[in-house]
Automatic annotation (TrEMBL):
Name of the protein in its database record: Nudix hydrolase domain-containing protein
Keyword Magnesium: yes
GO BP field: acyl-CoA metabolic process; coenzyme A biosynthetic process
Naturally occurring in which organism (per UniProt): Sorghum bicolor (Sorghum)
GO cellular component: cytoplasm
Gene3D superfamilies per record: Nucleoside Triphosphate Pyrophosphohydrolase
Span of domain Nudix hydrolase: 50-188
Biased composition regions of type Pro residues, renumbered to the chain: 24-36
Keyword ATP-binding on entry: no
InterPro entries: CoAse, NUDIX_hydrolase-like_dom_sf, NUDIX_hydrolase_dom
């Protein structure tokens, strides 16, 4: 058993070192540095400044040695995405030093995860939510799973559970549908995970983030076709309504 623990610890150390070297591509949602300055207001409306959020992709070793990721089921009383599965996280607040600070603060508030237990190793490619929120996934490693004693904020979270990260690279327990928005076709993935009598559906933005995270961690593409769309943010607030309209849910 001691030899197995040592081997597992060495593997996690190697993973931490490798992920710390990961560099995501430039965000398509950051302002272009060479762009000419534009007045804060103009005849065709105010400039659009997207809100930013960060989510924590918190990984740990399961009893079988597999990498698992912590997920939450959002409170059924929330006004948006109620009852849906999500990663812990939320919007950037004044005083947050960076995206990692946001993800860790929100995880502490939502599920009682002590930031001291998490080793932050990487930030990933940025995503755009259906509400035009720029979402930054932050990968963290929970080395001592037993030290984490969940304390749910029942106003925000109904449940906490974990799933194997590698499931987001496999075609098992997955369905999908093709959608189109603003002339771009993309795939919406749905993953089903069963634990005892509980059945969870992981889809939309959360599924997209976890597919990408698993691809980075395992250094391979998924077993299925992943068609993503990269929408350009509107320049002015008046243009937001056309982007927010449509059947796409995430």
């Amino acid at each position: 058993m001691a030899r197995e623990d040592c081997s597992s610890g060495a593997e996690m150390d190697a993973l931490v070192r490798r992920l710390r070297l990961h560099r995501p591509p430039p965000s398509p949602y950051d302002p272009e540095p060479d762009a000419a300055p534009v007045p804060a207001t103009a005849g065709d409306g105010q400039l659009f400044r997207p809100r930013r959020a960060a989510v924590l992709v918190c990984l740990f070793r399961g009893d079988g040695g597999e990498l698992r990721v912590i997920l939450t089921k959002r409170s059924s009383s929330l006004s948006t995405h109620s009852g849906e599965v999500s990663l812990p996280g939320g919007k950037v607040e004044e005083g947050d030093a960076d995206d990692a600070a946001t993800a860790l603060r929100e995880s502490k508030e939502e599920i009682g995860l002590d930031p001291a237990l998490v080793t932050v190793v990487a930030s990933l490619e940025h995503f755009l939510s259906k509400h035009l929120l720029v979402v930054v996934p932050v990968v963290g490693i929970l080395l001592d799973r037993q030290a984490f004693k969940p304390a749910l904020n029942i106003a925000e979270v109904d449940e906490i559970f974990d799933v194997p990260l590698e499931m987001f690279l496999k075609d098992e327990n997955r369905t999908s549908e093709e959608r189109e928005k603003m002339g771009q076709a993309f795939t919406v993935h749905y993953f089903t995970y069963e634990k005892g009598i509980q059945k969870y559906l992981i889809w939309g933005l959360t599924a997209r983030i976890l597919i990408h995270a698993a691809s980075v961690v395992y250094q391979r593409p998924p077993d299925f076709t992943e068609r993503s769309a990269h929408f350009k943010l509107p320049k002015f607030t008046k243009d937001c309504s056309s982007m927010l309209a449509g059947p796409a849910k995430h």
